[in-house]
Amino acid sequence: MNSPTTTGPMSSPRIEITRLRPKRGDLFLADPGPTVGHEQRGRRPYLVLSIDRMNKGKARLTIAVPLTTTDWSNPLHVRIEPHESGLGRVSYAMPEMVRHFSALRFTRHLGRVPIDTVDTAAKHAGVLIGLGRARFS
After folding, report:
1. Burial, 12: exposed, middle or buried (Cβ in 10 Å; 0-12, 13-18, 19+)?
2. What are the residues whose beta carbons fall under 8 Å from the beta carbon of 47, sequence distance 6 or more?
3. For residue 57, what pLDDT is reported?
4. Helix, strand or coil for residue 54?
5. CA–centroid distance for 62 within its chain
6. Under 8 Å CB-to-CB from 126, ≥6 apart: which residues?
7. Domain ranges of the chain
8. Cβ distance 129 to 49 under 8 Å?
9. What is the C-alpha separation between 112 and 28, in angstroms, rounded?
10. Rounded distance, CA 53 to CA 62, Å?
């Protein structure tokens, strides 16, 4: 049974979910917590982009991007098909919203995406932080 834990005197209780070990390409439901400005809000699916060596580290941190079901016609967004992912409908990874997460924020495993889809989303996120050049169409 999961039990509440706290990480410090000012921390709010969290449910520790020890069985969730994210892997690159996994889709998880997560709540990013407090957000500001145009950051994605609310509980939603996230695609794990970080390599497994990072995901398995003692800090239990991952790098992920949120998904949306809205087609914003943004050339950065990466389409994810339901039959390839386990999701109920077409979704889009949003690399411009890349962030890191504690694995404790992941509440449910939703599926996996093909590695070429993960690589495309990671490439798009990388371009946004100056790790290469690409044309998006």
Report:
1. exposed
2. 25, 26, 27, 64, 65, 67, 80, 93, 113, 118, 121
3. 93
4. helix
5. 8
6. 132
7. 18-128
8. no
9. 9
10. 10
Do the Cβ atoms of 64 and 30 come closer than 8 Å?
yes
Considering the domain 18-128 in this protein, what is its CATH number? 2.30.30.110
| Residue whose C-alpha is closest to residue 54's, from 64, 45, 46, 44 | 64
Q: To the nearest 10°, the Cα dihedral for 69, 71, 74, 76?
A: 40
Q: How far is CA 25 from the centre of its chain?
A: 9
Q: Write out 66-115 in H/E/C secondary structure.
A: EEECCCCCCCCCEEECHHHHCCCCCEEECHHHCEEEEHHHEEEEEEECCH
Per-residue pLDDT reduced to its tens digit, 94-110:
999 999 989 989 999 99
d(CA 77, CA 96): 8
Q: How much is the mean pLDDT over the chain?
A: 85
Tokens of 52: 């497994």
